[in-house]
Amino acid sequence: MNKPSQHDPIDILGEVYEKMFERVVEDFHKAEKKTDTLLHTLIDEARDKFIELGEVSKEDAEKLGDYLKRDMTHALHYLSETGHELSDWLGFETALYENAIFDLLLSAADKTTFELLTMKEALQQAAVYRTGEITGPGTLICDQCGEKLHFQKAGRIPPCPKCHATTFHR
User: What 3-state class would DSSP assign to 141?
Assistant: First the structure.
């Protein structure tokens, strides 16, 4: 793989996050038995591949793997437990926004997959989003003041622009 052409480390981490996501979803769909253990194993394998390719440092790849586990676990759990649409979880309408990452998440979002995944414990541990972490597309809500931060693509979470708090939830 070629290294991203941009030089901004934040943009590079967002791009690698999306590449890791694409690889995981593709491999997840190929599997006959879909479990939370498989999902985490695939994320770990993707993380290791990006380290091997020199796309990012080991430290950054480990963080991205953790962020991806958090985001995918949260999205799949939300969709399976509530029956709501992906746009509800993201916090904005996806029909007007073209992005391969949405298509992949939607393709991973079938009821059979959700019923097979038992991720409640991991979700509870991973439901907090913090400034400095990378998150996938969607809307984060400030835990302190309720301000909404909209992410159209993967990116680093900034402090709340309204109150400067550093923790968020979906």
Answer: strand
